[in-house]
Specification:
Order of helices and strands: HHHHHHHHEEHHHHHHHEEHEEEEE
Subunit structure: Interacts transiently with the RNA polymerase catalytic core formed by RpoA, RpoB, RpoC and RpoZ (2 alpha, 1 beta, 1 beta' and 1 omega subunit) to form the RNA polymerase holoenzyme that can initiate transcription.
Shape: globular
GO molecular function: DNA binding; sigma factor activity
CATH architecture of one domain: Roll
Low-confidence stretches: 17-23, 39-43, 96-111, 304-311
Largest sheet: 7 strands, mixed
Pfam family, one: SnoaL_2
CATH class of one domain: Alpha Beta
CATH topology of one domain: Nuclear Transport Factor 2, Chain: A
Number of strands: 9
Structural class: alpha+beta
Number of helices: 16
Distance between the termini: 51 Å
Protein name: RNA polymerase sigma factor
Helix content: 40-55%
Organism: Actinomadura chibensis
Oligomer: single chain
Length: about 450
């Protein structure tokens, strides 16, 4: 029975209804977000985090590869959090701080909303960073959904936290700290989109004529992938982080986009959404009614790659292993067996695309064949995850060299065990995915 109830509130889960995709473990978006925030919350501040990192370092056992890898992953996550806190505190210390309204100290954990407001208003750089850091990643995901770019989302979440620091004396606790930060982040994203208007464009002709009747989608040169740092959180939000969803919402006007994300993705009530966006409830309802059908028109009929209730890890690992071997060996038969007939490759920010299995194989055959003038070099790959999807970091050893250099980050959309789409991105984001920029023999 435990598998049929919400992990947050304990209510019964709705029936799956035979739809494809991963089974839900929460009854609503609100419960999903609450579970995420609980996992992210800090309980003891910077000193406790430093002590935890010290404990994790001492617990590493290099002689046992599997436990060692798990320990390093946990350590990396803790170090990222500490780096995030330090960055917020550093940037806050560089700004002119408003005069505090009271000299009382920062309150302890378990505060009420009014106490939370007092904690924010009277905080110094470190205590403020400790208060807002648990929300940093979800705020960046929110900004990423708004603008579709990892680089821009990093800048926007930093702008959000700096604005919150500079205007912390205006936080009165009428809404939660999280809601206040989301309002700042949403408005920062809307301001960004007003300054830097982005319109999807059509692709030009493909270098290889498309096959199987495949047509190009919209060209979104700003689209970038987002790393999955928390596998469970990524699984919960996979549908609204998949690249096909990100690409689809980029066609919505910015305010409609914000309303749809806050209402349908975050699960906010209409009144809270209206308050965050300085709109009326009627305006929010109207915007949502326009945004939903516009989004559905842009989404493929099937967007989920795994059967409901199935664990994708084994099938995913097998597929990635086959892909890496085929690329390393230049095995065109193995590559053909993994592609759907209507598969497609796009390469933002480059306006290149290839549509249909035959067209893709024609392109790959030239780059894999050492006798071809278009031969690129020897390939190696490392597996990772992006946007709740399997991904691979691709490295090339150019002829006459010994080093494999980062070349491309491929994000795969898989349907029925076959690759339906490959979105290939430039390699400057490798460090964000924990991938090195070079490999050696």
């Amino acid at each position: 029975m435990a598998g049929n109830v919400c992990r947050t509130c304990g209510k019964s889960l709705p029936a799956a209804g035979g739809k494809p995709g991963r089974a839900s473990v929460y009854c609503s978006a609100a419960c999903r977000q609450k579970a995420y925030r609980t996992r992210q919350a800090t309980s003891g501040g910077v000193q406790q985090l430093i002590s935890e990192i010290e404990r994790q370092v001492k617990g590493l056992v290099p002689e046992k590869p599997e436990p060692f890898y798990s320990g390093v992953e946990s350590l990396s996550s803790s170090v990222r959090r500490l780096r995030s806190i330090a960055r917020v505190a550093r940037d806050a210390s560089r700004t002119v701080t408003p005069e505090p309204v009271t000299n009382s100290g920062v309150t302890e954990t378990g505060v009420t909303e009014s106490d939370e407001a007092a904690a924010v208003r009277t905080s110094d750089e470190w205590s403020f960073a400790d208060l807002v850091e648990p929300y940093r990643r979800e705020l960046q995901v929110h900004c990423y959904r708004m603008v579709g770019s990892y680089d821009d989302s990093e800048d926007l979440v930093q702008e959000t936290l700096l604005k919150a620091w500079k205007h912390r004396d205006g936080f009165e606790g009428r809404a939660s700290l999280r809601a206040w930060l989301y309002k700042i982040a949403t408005n920062a994203s809307l301001d960004f989109l007003r300054r830097d208007e982005r319109r999807p464009r059509p692709y030009g002709p493909s270098p290889v004529p498309p096959s199987d009747g495949v047509a190009a989608g919209s060209f979104l040169p700003w689209l970038q992938p987002f790393p999955d740092e928390d596998p469970e959180a990524a699984a919960e939000s996979a549908e609204t982080l998949e690249l096909v969803f990100l690409a689809a919402i980029q066609h919505l006007p910015p305010r409609q986009r914000a309303v749809l994300i806050m209402r349908d993705v975050l699960g906010w009530p209409a009144a809270d959404t209206a308050q965050a966006l300085d709109l009326t409830v009627a305006s929010v309802t109207s915007a949502l009614q326009r945004a939903r059908p516009a989004l559905r028109e842009r989404l493929p009929e099937r967007r989920r790659e795994w059967a409901r209730g199935a664990d994708p890890s084994e099938a995913e690992r097998a597929l990635l292993d086959r892909y890496m071997r085929a690329a390393a060996d230049g095995d065109m038969s193995a590559m053909a067996a993994m592609l759907r007939a209507d598969a497609r490759i796009t390469m933002p920010p480059n306006p290149l695309w290839f549509g249909g299995r035959d067209a893709i194989l024609t392109m790959l055959a030239q780059t894999f064949d050492p006798a071809s003038p278009a031969y690129f070099g020897r390939w190696r790959h490392l597996p990772t995850r992006a946007n709740g999807q399997p991904a691979l970091g691709g490295y090339v050893q150019r002829p006459g060299t010994r080093v494999y250099r980062a070349q491309v980050l491929d994000v795969l959309r898989v349907e029925d065990g076959l690759i339906a789409e490959i979105t290939s991105f430039e390699p400057h984001l490798f460090p964000a995915f924990g991938l090195p920029l070079t490999l050696t023999d």
